[in-house]
Amino acid sequence: MTTLTQQTLSHLDWLEAEAIHIMREVAGQCSSPVLLFSGGKDSVCMLRIAEKAFRPGRFPFPLMHIDTGHNYPEVIAFRDKRAAELGERLIVRSLEDSMARGSIVLKHEHESRNKHQSVTLLEAIEEFGFDACIGGARRDEEKARAKERIMSFRDEFGQWDPKNQRPELWNLYNARSHKGENIRSFPISNWTELDVWQYIQREQLELPSIYFAHTRPVVRKGDLLMPVTDLTPAKPGDTVEDVMVRFRTVGDVSCTAPVESDADTVDKILAETATTTITERGATRMDDQTSEASMEQRKKEGYF
Amino acid sequence: MSALEHLPGIDNGLLRFLTCGSVDDGKSTLIGRLLFDSKTILADTLNAMEKTSAKRGMTAVDLSLLTDGLQAEREQGITIDVAYRYFSTGTRKYIIADAPGHEQYTRNMVTAASTANLAIILIDARKGMLNQTRRHSTLAHLLGIPHLLVAINKMDLVDYDQATYENIKAEYLKFAHKMGLKDVRFIPLSALSGDMVVDRGERMPWYEGPTLINILETAPAAHTERPEAFRFPVQYVCRPQDSANPALHDYRGFMGRVESGEIAVGDAVTVLPNGLTSRVKAIEIGGQKIERAIHEQSVTLLLDDEIDTSRGDMIVKSAEAPEAVKQIDANVCWMAEAPMSPARTYLIRHTSREVKAKIAKIDYRLDINTMEHESVDTLAMNDIARLTLKLAQPIFADPYRSNRATGAFIIIDESTNNTVGAGMIV
């Protein structure tokens, strides 16, 4: 083997170039795509990639958020502000509307709404006739996702069939679908949590405040810190503590827990991320801990 | 290896590599070792693996649990699909494509190999070269992986014996010579105990070459070291026509990725298929100007002249235009469960261009164990064959050997939209 002679891209430049290429393939191959934007850190990176892919033009797709109604208010405010700054159209569809229509029935009032997002998402896909949804999921998040394609086909029920996925070779992506079917596209599939934070640092991207260390009342449940909120009040007998925490992932209030941390800047978070001993979803997502295959099950049903 | 604390540190790019072999060769153990020593396996994952291993009555942690991601795979204890794994050393990021070893999964290995720039071919030191070794090497070669690393593993089970290593190496070299494999390196390993993976260990002082991680850290990240012709398939055309901004009124940006070579402002270019020539007026990323763009960079090109260009066209340097071809000879791997119907019309996606294609001739099927040519009427899943295809419109192609991006294509069945084949232009 020879030594390095040809100039190559840094790892972040390479990942960014790949993601731009994928977004442009969706725009070139699909007639009505949409970019899912939650206000979370991965989707913040997606917006920067979309700017690099399409400016000075407008994005060739609207942004959409499926709102569980149980999001942290800081994140919702950030979502609206960011969409307005970019001057792009933001569609919000809410689980509460699906519940009012009767298409979502909760087992009990406090059941996590996270998995029900699939229903509202599929309804919105039908309403707007979207043939592709671009999302910020990454293969390193969860093992069912490690085998997800970059262009992932969903049938007319929104189902993912992991044993019958389209082969994906080179950078020749096949985003074709028939009417009623749907492609889920994941431009940052090959990024890790560390890459995301390095990109946020390099691009100086703004994030919702709850990603940074702040003091918050929590209850300790085993290894998890349960945030005490209006939605998730302390139960009798719980010991409420004020703890310095930050969120590593941001989702539904009822199923996302923060981690203990005093990292209040991107640099400090990067240092923590590089030396952490717990995976991103392991520390924080109750919905993934139900069973070893819970993510795979939700994805088969149309979840992202 | 805990160089991660040095972040963000020196950035030596990103290397994509492939591991070929079966669980029996210690492939999962090797991947586990790399992830573990680079601190990529975290405590909760390890806990989950310990629990599952114990549930199955195993005494040690089964590292294959890391790579077997799907429920069906866990239930059957086999790997069905390609899995992608990530680790970083602080100087370089790695993407491992982990493909199952068994013959019936040829298509998965082809998939994994298509994006890899280095292949680790695992050999069990006790067993030496097997048919599987030859098959994996053949596929790696066919897919144009520039660097092969033959890892003779389980040295702990042969008492770290140098003669065993040398014999296997000699046998492989004979095969490599016959096949025309050029860049092949060898390393003795014990993935289980870690010798020569990250640390040298003390049991193989006779081996003076670099460790596995050293080889990975210094291997070229680029697919090729040769200068390549500039190839820029147009993915999307940006025409903002923003009435509030007259400066953008005539803006016409051609968006794409530099698939090979490089381009600078002022270079003379030709747009295919119309053959019109112009010069590069500007190169941009997200509206920001840059002076030149290199291989794999996604950019927007603006030209001096107004040339009607759309998705599927290709911008090249005028002095090095590729051939426009309407008939191609290609090595094709059939990927679908449904066999090929030679009478049908398929769709071919080549760069950002889609054209209809008919199978003019199946020249032969290749037996990848014996390299013999067989005469066949159709292709079944996992078959590899030499085909002649007739195209409805021309494509701008290079031989796969000289340009991976413009030599590769996929075959799509329009009735299902499924990707049914992968081809490499000869």
Give an overview of the whole structure.
- The complex is a heterodimer of chains A (304) and B (426).
- Chain A is α/β, with parallel strands linked by helices and 304 residues long.
- Chain A is built from 9 helices and 10 strands.
- Chain A has helices spanning 11-29, 41-54, 73-86, 95-101, 117-128, 193-203, 266-275, 280-284, 294-300; strands spanning 33-36, 63-67, 90-94, 132-134, 151-154, 182-185, 214-221, 224-227, 240-246, 259-260.
- In chain A, strands 3-2-1-4-6-5 form a 6-stranded mixed sheet, with helices on both faces.
- Chain A is globular.
- The model of chain A is unreliable at 1-5 and 288-292 (pLDDT under 50).
- In chain B, the strands form 4 sheets. Chain B has a 6-stranded mixed sheet, with helices on both faces.
- By secondary structure, chain B is α+β, with helices and mostly antiparallel strands.
- Chain B folds into 3 domains: 3-218, 3-Layer(aba) Sandwich (Rossmann fold); 231-320, Elongation Factor Tu (Ef-tu), domain 3; 323-425, Elongation Factor Tu (Ef-tu), domain 3 (Beta Barrel).
- Chain B has 8 helices and 22 strands.
- Chain B starts with 13 loop residues before the first strand and ends with a strand.
- Mean pLDDT of chain B is 88; it is low at 1-8.
- Chain A: Belongs to the PAPS reductase family. CysD subfamily.
- Chain A: This is Sulfate adenylyltransferase subunit 2.
- Chain A: Its EC number is 2.7.7.4.
- Chain A: Residues 33-258 form the Phosphoadenosine phosphosulphate reductase domain.
